[in-house]
Fold this protein.
Amino acid sequence: MEKKGFWQSGHKPTLFSAFLYFDMSFMIWVLIGPLAVIIAADYPMDPVQKANLVALPILGGSILRLVLGFMTDYIGPKRTAQFGMLFTLVPLIMGWKFVDSLDQLYVVALLLGVAGASFAAALPLASQWYSKEHQGLAMGIAGAGNSGTVISTLFANRIAQHYGSWEVVFGLAIIPIVLVFIIFTIFAKNSPNRPAPKKLSQYAQVLKQGDAWVFCAFYCVTFGGFVGLSNYLTIFFNTQYGLSPVRAADFTTFCVIAGSFFRPVGGYLSDKIGGAKMLTILYAGAGLMLAAVASLPALPIVITMLFIGMMCLGAGNGSVFQLVPQRFGSELGLMTGIIGAAGGLGGYALPLILGQLYQSTGSYTSGFLILSAVTLGSLVLLTVMQARWKNKWMARGGKAQMDGMSDVSHVNV
């Protein structure tokens, strides 16, 4: 039987709907990141408090991804996504009308995590329509919805300055999420090949497999690095280089574009040359760029380095999720939630590392050096795991094809 090409297979309206849902949700999830500098004018904060404010939505997303991952398996990704969009209205309304203190703002920031949890429904919704040879591109296209970050970094501060209020940005964000809810409800469909729900005991069995934790570590670095930097770079540019809130957010936008739009490229190239090989290149590139940023060079140079580093991290997200369906195809909804939660925890930790070390040392150098070391450490872990996967596969009499990771579904490490 002749295999269908990507554009002749799957369900395009669902793929587009998943992208749109993820895109608008991501826009809302990172809304506080670019606004943090303006918000600080109303609620003065030290470096650690600023870092905590932009990190809380990522923590909320990390926790709620487990919930939405569970719901995706039991009630389906479409209903889960619809629930997520409706619940997203809660923090938007609160931020628009009901914030009078920094503590209340922290609550809003945490609840914005439900928008970040969209990952756990959007990716399974799209990927379940596609065969394994097209998983990388399908999940890359749906996952490119993290480009919603660009909308926030480009327009949030401009809107706040135009209206003289950052709160109005939350109110205006209600409009696109409602429109997307309507489009999504009309066009998105669950795949007929959706796996049957698993029992809780079966979920526990998945977590006993070492591969699950390895993929969590991989995504903790790629996605955590991308979303953590997306939320923190406006503060970094404002503090280190003295840029205005709008200009700082504009340079953040430039860096975020690289990570967002190279995610599907990472998935596509992983389909062609193998996810492990692609990740090796990307971890090395990101680690070297972060180490170079630690020297805090002139603004044009640091922007170039961050652009390349974010490009590697964004493409790495696509590479990781080219591998996941091959290893955990029947538990994809659950594993998407678990691995996505790990990525969120990485994104939560990154601003706190940079904020804490800046407050204690007065410099961002040590923070970026630590981020570089963690990224290069992931490269070492990947190398070790490739060898273990290859040895186990060959011990079972199989032909090693580790470049494409086609044997990963047979390996339990």
About this structure: Residues 12-189+205-410 form a domain with the Growth Hormone; Chain: A; fold (CATH 1.20.1250.20). The CA atoms of residues 160 and 169 lie 6 Å apart.
